[in-house]
Amino acid sequence: MDLAFSEEQEMLWKSARDFLATKVPKTLVREMEEDGKGYVPELWKEMADLGWVGLPFPEEYGGGGFTFLDLVILLEEMGRACLPGPFVSTVVLGGMPVLEWGSEEQKKEILPKLCRGELIMTMALTEPSGKYEAKGVQLEAKAEGDQFVLNGTKLFVNDGNVADKMIVVARTGKKAKPEEGITLFLVDGKAAGISVEVLKTIAGDKQCEVTFKGVKVGKGDVLGKVDEGWEMVKKVVEWAALAKAAEMQGGAQQVLEMTIQYAKDRVQFDRPIGSFQIIQHYLADMSIDVDSARVSLHKAAWMLSEGIACRREISVIKGWLSEAYRRVTAQAHQIHAAIAFTKDHDLELYFRRAKAAELYFGDADYHREIVAQELGM
């Protein structure tokens, strides 16, 4: 495994940093927290034209043909910029499952539109339990003739308010094990019987409660096979956990850099506060958290790109960053002191996102359980 960037990856990294620094000022980030959509359609189209939305998809569907490691490099820069919008929802929760398990007809119908920025997607998975467990899936999909009828409620659906199409995880049969009898459906986000309410969240992102009342979908809208969807869900949660970890890594890196600069610039007692040992130790701890995470992140992304089983490695990095990102932002607040707690300071944006990301696609305890299982416990 070579962790050095290739020439293409170096170009992707530099162009992403320059673009996001120009196009995503923190004023825009704050505006999107209050905006009903939570993203700027014109900016979304620009990112699609740059090839970002189609980055991990094959060229035959209009994509760039890049790897998941390349996607992680891009996501780190998005996390650094606090980019608002449905990127992970569309690319990882929506497009990648279609690519992996969709029929050729489904791929040709969905992926080219997605790559062009004309289709926003998400996955409706969690319910009132909020857990990424099969027993938490209670939304019912009942077969009626050549259709299925969906009834139930999904919670914390990322970007459900703007999704043109949702992958809905539903229970199609009650079996001996909760992992059995689960099916994934491709559902029109604006179909009759669907109602969406945006929830108020600490990060100001668009997590939604989505209610399904008598929503009809055809049997041709099944993704994969009926009653065999849970293994697919587990794989998607792994991808999403790694994608979210990449965003968290980028955010933590930015917090570290801005805090180092502040410690150099801020003068107290006639000297920069960075000259005091306690500040130096805080910064060293932050650097250890950030730098060690990057190695594990890129290792897991490389393994996934190479088709190597990496369930353990993904849980290692997501479990670590769920606590490390929050820890880094908390230590940064200690160094910045009172000024950083104001709404006008950028650090509070990162702190709120760190706290929210902690729970996305499994918190630290959830991933510790997976690591223990992979160790044979």
List the helices and strands and how they pair.
Blueprint: H1 7-23, H2 26-34, H3 41-49, H4 68-81, H5 87-101, H6 104-115, E1 121-124, E2 140-144, E3 147-158, E4 165-171, E5 182-188, E6 194-198, E7 207-218, E8 222-223, H7 230-265, E9 267-268, E10 271-272, H8 277-305, H9 311-336, H10 347-357, H11 364-374
Parallel strand pairs: 1-4
Antiparallel strand pairs: 2-3, 3-7, 4-5, 5-8, 6-7, 9-10
Helix pairs in contact: 1-4, 4-7, 5-6, 5-7, 7-8, 7-9, 7-10, 8-9, 9-10, 9-11
List keywords for this structure.
377 residues, alpha+beta, four-stranded mixed sheet, four-stranded antiparallel sheet, 11 helices
For this structure, the quaternary state is: single chain
How is the biggest beta sheet arranged? 4 strands, mixed
- How many DSSP H or I helices? 11
Structural class by helix and strand composition:
alpha+beta
What is the number of strand segments?
A: 10
Percentage of residues in DSSP E strands: 15-25%
Mean pLDDT: 95
What percent of residues adopt helix (DSSP H or I)? 40-55%
Give the overall shape, derived from the CA principal axes.
globular
Biggest sheet: strand arrangement? 1-4-5-8
